[in-house]
Amino acid sequence: MPDQEMVENRDLVAIKDWLCRQPHLPHEVDDILLLRFLSSAKYSLEKAKKTIDLFFTVRSNAPELFCKRDPWAPEIKRIFDVTDMLPLPNKTKENYKVFIYRLSTTDLDLFNFVDAVKTFFMLADTRLTEDQDVPAGEVPIFDSANVTLKFIGKINLSALRKYMIYTQEAMPIRLKQVHVINAPSYIGKLYAICKPFLKTEVAKLIKFHEPNSDTLYKDIPQEILPSDYGGEAGSVEQIKREWIKKMEAKRDWFLTNDKRWAVDESQRPSSCQDARVDKLKDLPGSFRSLALD
After folding, report:
1. Is residue 197 part of a domain?
2. pLDDT at 2
3. Residue 174 burial (CB < 10 Å; 0-12/13-18/19+)?
4. CA dist list (Å): 267 to 23, 97, 264, 274, 275
5. How far is 269 from 289, CA to CA, in rounded Å?
6. pLDDT, tens digit, 9 for 90 and up, residues 187-236
7. How many CB atoms lie within 10 A of CB 275?
8. How many domains in the chain?
9. Does residue 81 sit in the same domain as residue 161?
10. Which of 5, 37, 83, 139 has a beta carbon 3.0–4.6 Å from 177's, enabling a disulfide?
11. 285 located within any domain
């Protein structure tokens, strides 16, 4: 048996044993998800334990994002009508998984920010529990071609902060690069909204690319992108539909998951307190409290 596989099996047994002894945390967690926590923590058991605890704690403190999740619900279908969210089928030579997120229309009448974040996390759960391959890193590409200044009025600051804490500190991933393509002239105003919630090390990973530029291809091979971007991975619509089907196939899982993965705070040991959870409640009151210059 390869050494790496021996380490994974040993640490998986250790983390499952630890999890079963945590009275406040859920005990039924997919092995592949636990392996992702170990991989993202570079097989540091203590770091993995803290991330697992925060992963479930954030979810329990954000019921608007993690409860009553039905892939067939009209609000979820509406989000897929006005957005494209898709993991790409092929990885980079560094074994990085690449994702594309974009608005598919400039008409924001049907766009709800909380529903969009909820859908984003449903897609993430589908991938993290169904995809048996653990990549060496992840690279999101945000296409801002259809983002206008009207989008600012759609942002829910509470949901944005929870999204930022969860994706930067609680998800079992290794973020390697972040690309914003087709960046408009006013991208600075949109970035200013996110900046207070960005960790310094994540902010350093962000690269902005102007419309009609090919600078993205210095980091991401064009051939692994969808045909909409001149690549060979199939169309955005085709890839998106495949992931929607995968998500809908997990409907029963989603409908029971909010109960199975709930945290019982009354059973939390005093030694397991995490100050980061307080950030979920310490929210700015309005856009006037954020610098948009």
Report:
1. yes
2. 56
3. middle
4. 6, 37, 6, 15, 17
5. 36
6. 999 999 999 999 999 999 999 999 999 999 999 999 999 999 999 999 99
7. 6
8. 2
9. yes
10. 139
11. no
CA 150/CA 134 separation, integer angstroms: 37
- Residues in the chain with pLDDT < 70? 1-2, 277-293
**Contact of 31 with 57, CB cutoff 8 Å:** no
Task: Identify the domain containing residue 205 by its residue range.
Answer: 74-250
What pTM was computed for the model? Answer: 0.91
Q: Strand 206-208 to strand 178-181: parallel, antiparallel, or no bridges (unpaired)?
A: parallel
Select from 82, 83, 63, 80 the least CA-distant residue to 72. 80
Same-domain check for residues 115 and 9: no
Q: Which of 155, 68, 55, 60 is nearest to 119 (CA)?
A: 68
Q: Model confidence over 41-50: pLDDT tens digits?
A: 998 999 999 9
* Co-location of 103 and 166 in the same domain: yes
Q: Give the domain CATH number at 173.
A: 3.40.525.10
Q: In the block, which residue shows the tokens 């950030």? A: 279
**Residues 20, 113: one domain?**
no
Average pLDDT, the chain: 90
Question: Which tokens belong to 167?
Answer: 């994706």
